[in-house]
Design a protein that fits this description.
2 copies of one chain form a homodimer. With 705 residues, chain A is of the alpha+beta class. Chain A has 2 domains: 302 residues, Thrombin, subunit H (Beta Barrel), CATH 2.40.10.120; 247 residues, no CATH class. In chain A, strand 2 and strand 3 form a beta hairpin. In chain A, helix 1 crosses helix 12. The radius of gyration of chain A is 25 Å and the shape is globular. Chains A and B meet through helix 9, helix 10, helix 11, helix 16 and helix 18 of A and helix 9, helix 10, helix 11, helix 16 and helix 18 of B.
Chain lengths: 705, 705
């Protein structure tokens, strides 16, 4: 459930892990850049980064709006991220004759660089605490509905004022489940061009079987370049490239945008995840993975069209299965419950916090209410019952007509003035839409919706299917809509609510038909979110006062700083070394007779003798990362680029609930392996020169290894 | 739901299809051998098979107890079935060093033939109507429980008497949903040896994408030989081999064992299938397909171990999706409901059938009751919550101890004396069991069970997991049990209930723990089945009296006779020819660059120039078949073998609900293609000679083409 993936108070994991932190046993933390763990770094690693070190790393770091991270690696706007973050763009730029996902891509000149269709990058320029102003609008006795409206309005005001003043994208971020609100200002880049991608088979070698595994051999990299005014962006803050890589036990930092974590969830919310939300998500993922696999197997072009979706689905499925297994461990949840009890008891013993226990009950009750409504909410409001971008486009156009005539503060957040540029970037994207695939997906989604509502006899299903079978209805909708045409979307975007209501397009009509019910469900969801925000606010106020520990909020897909050391671990009695080499890449392919998904791209065979096979390829560290950190730069004490995060190992799948450095590891591609491959496999001379032109001078800073 | 797959009255489809039958528009029917469609054949095809023609075909036909059909094709016990029916045996005979599924198998001499581990074949020797005796025990006013017990007891008596008298396997079969009961006597063969199988890639060329598709190119054949007393069985009734194949529009017959159909279900039961049962089954199939695919991709040996299960799951998934799509067509179900109304009105207008409408309500109510209990029933009694043969073995041993001391008529049907030989054949099978795979499956099944019961807090889940996570519990059960050892099973099989209760084996203890709850659920299920049996009995009595049509019961995995003509159909405006050739096999591989699942086995490349590429390979006919018919012989008017059924096309997936000859077709391998491949690709000289030694003399009977 989207709502429960929101951040919450930090109290729980912190209580659990107090000992770990105070005894310096772990490298936990996805720290705020305006509240970094300076004391821990000093005590444990004798490292004291100054403000300019932090600012440089912060402004070299990039958020990819499609769910990942990256960094600037040259003064000319060169950007490095993961292949699996660039995948979306590679897929959208490909067609039946050009398969950049399968074959890779290299621009030898800037003229050959290919503009991404709808990619937005954000660089965090400043953070401002606006908690007081946000919370001032919440008055005692307000209903959740009124409170949510008031909160939404003040957040919209703050963002609008900031954007008008600075010209920067401005987002108010809810932290600690609502105990704090910070204003993040971002520089946006939307002219972003593809520079290089390897074959997916080199980037995602080992496929689903090796996904989340270690030792690993993936060249999971993709280069873009940011442009401004038609020329490469001039970048002040970018990372110098280290040709030294990472030594064992070396301290490293990760600067990126972890998406969601649940360390501060109450036990009741974790149980809801275990018993309701994850099983339900898995059910949908299984269904869709099967559908697309089966369709993709029918031919090369089908396979190309579903490749990106299938990757995402398989990745989510494996991640959720790992999380579910973690939650099914009775020991884990009983420890959580114990820690929760301790805090509750401490609060109850203190007269300042009488009645705090109600906060837990409020969260539990609101979660139960949400769980009871999750079927219609997910189908109608989250759009899972209409699984095609053509429906999303239709809904956006229908709602935009209604929302744009409201005052800014009263609109749904995605229609706020501060989000208009981003909204239009996505809405008017030229990304290809394939009617055959969309019919398949919509037909299956409508079937699923019918089942979830108990059968075709349900009144909502009757209204949606209009007397047809799910398949017939999907054919009618997809073949009848004109929304694949961007010019048509632009035309509708300008219309009034009355004009939209008079538009005859079956997908627009479907979105209109269901909109009042979908909005009703969304309002319900928002009210419960407000209940939880207030309850977590109370719990965290008590926690800060009673525990006085330095902490960090759950992940919110905003920039965080993590740290750790590059080191291996034990598994099934075996020592897993921290680093792999290019030689291991060839060996693993041989073990599997070079059969998919362990087949090397042919170029790697042809160039084997040019490569230094002992070059480090991938490595692990104890840095605290999670999904969203994909593409995050890994830097050393000198702030030099030594690697790029692309995965966690299988033991890290439960890290969303609690950090551990026993076996859980972040997996990166090493800076040395990247250059070795670019030079000797891909002949990417210009690119390598641009990177290596930025090599840090030796001994620029003392390196402790 | 198992229960709803039982046969029901024939009234519904017959009402719907009365016109079709009377107007001779279709070749519908899975006819009883003791009630064949003689008049239809005479009127429509001027064909009048005599009793010896029917007896010869009946006794040449074979039922494979693992869910398929086959036929004798030589006097020396040679048997032909599908590769996908022999698959189970091929898998069980293979190991890490011998992969007969992938590589195929050929015994050049009888000494080289490999005994199947646990295969039972049945040849139907006689049929006797025992309806009167079975129904005589049901007294007015009996509770469903008492009625079910009485029915079970008399069926056990009839079977025991027959077996004692004839030495033949004797099964009382419920037909027309309980309106008739017939005693089937079978000759059993359990010394069955593998003679030949092609590579699975030739048998299942095109894999999941081409499954249920046409045109098709599959050599889906597997040869066995029946032995008696250590020597090849001497067979009186076997099919002569036709080297002529099938001409377009030629009349053909199919003699096999269709498994289940639902043509006579009430609308309420069909709605339950659409809204509850099929979605639920799909959910489980998606989950398991994903689990096994993912595990199988980790290496060659993993892939080998899951190959058979994956095939079955993908096959069921595609079939169920087709059925669900059919039921989601509002036109289809409204036609069914209309026909049902017509019969109801006719019955109500006739004073002899007042109160008949209660029968529909009874079926509906009992189905609703079953639907409400389907979660625990399927998890605990059908064993879906313990997805490993080791649990099935444990349960059989636990129940056998309890059941064997009861009088024969009071036992659960699978423990009746008449079933003892079959029970022991399966229980003491040496089929390999792999602990890694069983741990994976059981861990996933226990996770699913936990979710289905609402979480680990449920008392039954608590009892089953014993304070552990599903994975830990699965590891403990699989690594701790000794039931993989057949000698240990034999030892436990001899024990008394008290001795079993004192046996310390974790899987035995699990089976004992859950047995009283599982038996309680089974009893509930049986009582509802009895309610339905009685209701369908009433409906069918009215139908027979009011409509006087010649009909056939829904499929019951017993021998049936179907007929039809070999002819193509139109699809998307294109004419699909009735027959494919070996040339098309090569062309389809080329279209897909010989990439899996469209890759030809290397032998087929090496031998291409020896083959007559214009040899017919696969063909379609309008014969009325369904799952279970796999491996059924297709014969011409002369009773000669012209092909072997292996699939239906995609349009046939709804055939379980209603027959149609518009596009729905049965797909067969042609006799000519089989011999061409055996001779020129596989060098199976001895086998070909044995088949062709039995070639029918030309003009043995007049062939009308």
């Amino acid at each position: 459930m989207r709502n429960t993936l929101r951040t919450a108070g930090t109290f729980l994991a912190t209580v659990l892990l107090l000992n770990a932190i105070h005894n310096a046993q772990g490298d936990e933390g996805m720290w705020l850049f305006n509240d970094p763990p300076l004391q821990i770094l000093k005590e444990r690693y004798q490292f004291e980064p100054d403000a300019s070190w932090l600012e440089h790393l912060q402004k070299s770091s990039i958020r990819f709006d499609n769910g990942g991270s990256g960094s600037f690696v040259s003064a000319n706007g060169l950007i490095l991220t993961n292949h699996h973050i660039g995948f979306d763009t590679l897929q959208k730029l490909s067609d039946a004759k050009h398969n950049y996902v399968k074959d890779g891509f290299l621009a030898r000149t800037q003229a050959e660089e290919k503009p991404a269709l709808d990619l937005e990058l954000n660089v965090l320029m400043s953070i401002e605490d606006v908690t007081t102003r946000v919370n001032a609008v919440i008055k005692p006795g307000m209903t959740p509905e009124k409170a949510y409206q008031a909160r939404r309005a003040v957040m919209a005001d703050i963002e609008k004022e900031s954007q008008d003043k600075t010209g920067l994208r401005s987002d108010v971020i809810e932290l600690y489940g609502g105990a704090k609100f910070h204003l993040y200002r971002y520089k946006r880049y939307t002219d972003v061009r593809l520079v290089f991608a390897p074959e997916q088979q080199a980037a995602f070698f080992g496929g689903d079987p090796d996904n989340f595994e270690y030792p690993r051999y993936n060249l999971d990299v993709c280069f873009f370049r940011a442009y401004e005014n038609g020329a490469p962006a001039k970048i002040e803050h970018y990372l110098k490239w280290s040709t030294q890589g990472v030594a064992e036990n070396e301290l490293v930092f990760v600067s990126g945008n972890p998406g969601h974590s649940n360390r501060q969830f109450t036990t009741a919310q974790l149980e809801s995840m275990r018993d309701k939300q994850i099983p339900r998500s898995l059910q949908r993922l299984y269904r869709k993975e099967d559908l697309l696999t089966s369709w993709g197997a029918r031919g090369d072009e089908n396979e190309r069209r579903v490749k990106k979706d299938l990757f995402s689905i398989a990745n989510s499925r494996k991640a959720l299965l790992g999380r579910l297994a973690g939650l099914m461990d009775p020991e884990f949840l009983s420890q959580k419950a114990h820690a929760e009890d301790e805090l509750r008891k401490a609060a109850e013993a203190n007269p300042a916090y009488t009645g705090l226990k109600d906060a837990w009950a409020q969260i539990q009750t609101s979660q139960q209410k949400l769980d009871q409504q999750v079927v219609p909410i997910s189908l109608l409001e989250w759009g899972k019952g209409f699984d095609t971008p053509l429906f999303e486009i239709a809904r956006t156009l229908v709602r935009h007509a209604d929302e744009k005539i409201k005052p800014n503060g009263q609109r749904l957040p995605e229609f706020r003035d501060s989000n208009r540029d981003s909204l239009e970037l996505g809405l008017f994207s030229d990304a290809p839409i394939y009617n055959d695939l969309e019919t398949l997906k919509l037909s299956d989604a409508l079937t699923w919706l019918t089942i979830e509502y108990g059968g075709p006899g349900n009144p909502i299903v009757k209204q949606l299917l209009a007397g047809k079978s799910p398949h017939e209805r999907a054919v009618e909708l997809i073949s009848g809509t004109r929304l694949a045409d961007v010019a048509f979307r632009k035309k509708l975007y300008a219309l009034s609510p009355e004009e939209i209501a008079a538009t005859h397009d079956p997908m627009i009509e479907l979105a209109r038909t269901i909109d009042s019910e979908a909005r009703r469900l969304r309002k319900y969801e928002e009210e419960q979110a407000e209940v939880q925000t207030q309850a977590y606010g109370k719990i965290n106020a008590a926690r800060f006062a009673l525990e006085k520990t330095h902490s960090y909020p759950d992940a919110t897909f905003t920039l965080r700083l993590a740290f750790g050391t590059a080191r291996g671990y034990q598994q099934d009695g075996e020592n897993i070394p921290y680093e792999t080499t290019i030689a291991g890449f060839y060996q693993r392919a041989e073990q599997h007779h070079n059969q998919p998904p362990f087949d090397l791209p042919s170029r790697w065979f042809a160039r084997k003798d040019r490569l230094n096979l002992s070059t480090p390829f991938n490595f692990v560290s104890t840095a605290d990362i999670i999904g969203g950190n994909s593409g995050s730069p890994v830097v050393n004490r000198a702030g030099e680029f030594v690697g790029i995060i692309f995965d966690g190992n299988i033991q890290s799948l439960v890290v969303g609930f609690a950090y551990s450095d026993k076996q859980s590891r972040a997996v990166s591609v090493c800076s040395q392996g990247i250059v070795e491959a670019l030079k000797n496999v891909y002949d990417a001379t210009e690119l390598t020169d641009e990177l290596l032109g930025n090599v840090a001078a030796p001994n620029q800073m003392t390196r402790v290894r």
